[in-house]
Amino acid sequence: MNLSRRAFLVFYRNLVSYKRFVVSTFIASLIQPLFYLITFGIGMGAYMGAFGGKTYLSFLVPGVLITSVMMSSTFESLYGAFVKMIHEKLYDSLIATPVSAEDAIAGDILWGAFRGLISGVLMMAVAFFMGVFPVSLPAGLLLCVLMVLIGIMFGSMAMIVTSYAPNFDFFNYYTELVITPMLFFSGVFFPLDHFPAWMKTLAQFLPLTHAVQVSRAVYAGVYTKNLVLNLAFILALTAIAFWFGVGRMKKRLIK
Amino acid sequence: MATIIKADGLTKKFGDLTAVDGISFEIREGECFGFLGPNGAGKTSTVRMIHCVSPITSGTIFVGGLPANVDNRKIKAMTGVVPQEITLDNDLTVFENMMVFSKFFDIPRREARKRTDELIAFVELEAKRDNKISELSTGMKRRLLVARALLNKPSLIIADEPTTGLDPQARHLIWQRLRLLKSQGTTLILTTQYMEEAQQLCDRLVIMNEGKILIGGSPRQLIDDEIGREVVEIRIDAKEDPHLIAELGPFARGHERAGDTLFFYCRDGREIQKKLVELDLPNTVHRPATLEDVFLKLTGRSLIE
User: Fold this and answer.
1) ipTM of the complex as predicted
2) Is position B305 within any domain?
3) What is the pTM of this model?
């Protein structure tokens, strides 16, 4: 793996080009999670009463927040990277400079994670005004660090998909068969407790489950032993997906 | 002149397809070296291996004494690439494209700004400095690609079909700029399928076909060796060939039939000219020999699919 600090230059390139799209992407990455919060959180939450001693909204926020991190970083690595690779040939011009293919891909995964962080922080701000916030400021900052890690994980996973993608349609398999189911089986909208055993087991293999549990723990400031397992899962998957995603994309870029 | 690039037994395979088939060549410092050939001849595959963006299947290339391979950042740092496809950053302006690119070469900001302004002027794009790439014509985009390739003050420039799809004005401007760079001592590698371009720019060239080098030398020498000085084309039915070859053959170095035309290659066409008048043939052309004749003679005048 020929990775260097130049990955950050690729990140910088994205930052420069991003200026123009700030407003539109802010809105885009806010709208859907915001709908979840309003409809489920406030609308449905009104029927739910106390939810483990708290409002339903306070249960929902950490999950929806981490989901928006997942969505932003995933889409950046799917559509963003595919356009740069196939349509704009941007990677070709990058790798003709001292930037290596690994730098270029790592820089873009990092960028996706940054986009995820922005989405997550925006959600945090919105939830703040709805009266839901992390237990303390340090907890909030810790969550930001974890959002970057989780963004790298989902971005790397999506990069693997992109490395095999012949066209845009291919991404539907991933979003419909992996991302969407994860949204419903990872305990974002309701606890996993009442699922049958096999579904609980299945959920343990979904990265979003672990990400949601981490987010919820940090929000509440309740750190259990289970959290170590969640983090271990996330770290291991991030390392594997990053290594594999970058390696696969290199093969595709350098022929 | 010192050798800057040396390739030995260079081979590139994509699965079963052999794109470059064990070629060897040397490029000297300060010259313009051309790779000529039809589509799929292996030109682009060859230069991609030189500037370290394509793994070498077998054989070696040394660039400035360094072995070329995909992880060699030093070679990439001393090379400027004008790519075949337009790989500009569509989200950025002309100025931003240059500035962002300069980062990849670790050029300090102040210096990058200075070079960007100079290079934008060099390719006459001052008026478009703050325009987005989508607002440029193809010719402007290609000029910007040339400017971008010069940001790192490369000692080696690789131009991969730099004028494809351009109108004559834009083409000539790019040629002038490339010649200017060469006169300043930069080594230039050019791939092209335009014979005129090769004749205009190259000191030496090789003609490639199906992954192999067919022949190499200076354009003048290649034309002299392979064709002569002049070419006579006669558009006539093939059944006349034996008769015409008997009449004109003695004055020519060689002849060739391609489609509806019979070609005679000669050193001095005056004798043939006289004969043509005697024979009173209607459709004849008498013209100087060009690189295109060499090219077509070697790669075949029939269509290459």
Assistant:
1) 0.84
2) no
3) 0.89
